[in-house]
């Protein structure tokens, strides 16, 4: 007994998940750009970074959903064209997401490092007295 191929709704869900992931990746990049432009001591910078982190989580969830749905279509070598291109495209999106995550981590580390020395310096001055 053969299983019926997925219906149009299933394919629509795959494309909706891809669009959702792409939209969240774009949003993450925009938030990271805002964080880079914000003054290093600005509380806005931390808010932009938090928004970027949230967009990163949502993008990852969309890509997870997409990959799971694509696996259910069957082995890559049995998926008909043009759907056979989707796993490679989603993998490229995943690589882009990882690169942006590294960028986010660098900005978070930089923002935290710039924020902490002022309080550490104050403690050092008190202990030196």
Describe this structure in words.
With 129 residues, the chain is an all-alpha fold. The chain contains three helices and no strands. The longest helix is centred in the last third of the chain and has 43 residues, at 86-128. The radius of gyration is 21 Å and the shape is elongated. It starts with 7 loop residues before the first helix and ends with a helix. Mean pLDDT is 85; it is low at 119-129.
Q: Can you give the helix content as a percent range?
A: over 70%
Oligomerization state = single chain
Distance between the termini: 84 Å
Query: What is the residue-averaged pLDDT?
Result: 85
Structural key phrases:
129 residues; 3 helices; single chain
Quick overview of this protein structure:
With 129 residues, the protein is mostly helical.
Produce the secondary structure layout.
Elements: H1 8-37, H2 43-73, H3 86-128
Helix pairs in contact: 1-2, 1-3, 2-3
């Amino acid at each position: 007994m053969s299983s019926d191929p997925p219906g149009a709704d299933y394919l629509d869900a795959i494309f909706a998940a891809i669009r959702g992931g792409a939209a969240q990746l774009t949003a993450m990049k925009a938030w990271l750009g805002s964080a880079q432009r914000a003054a290093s001591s600005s509380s806005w910078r931390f808010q932009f970074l938090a928004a970027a982190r949230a967009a990163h989580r949502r993008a990852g969830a969309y890509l997870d959903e997409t990959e799971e749905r694509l696996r259910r279509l069957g082995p890559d070598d049995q998926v008909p064209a043009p759907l056979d291109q989707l796993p490679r495209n989603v993998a490229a999106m995943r690589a882009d997401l990882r690169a942006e995550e590294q960028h986010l981590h660098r900005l978070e580390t930089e923002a935290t490092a710039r924020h902490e020395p002022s309080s550490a310096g104050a403690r050092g001055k008190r202990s030196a007295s």
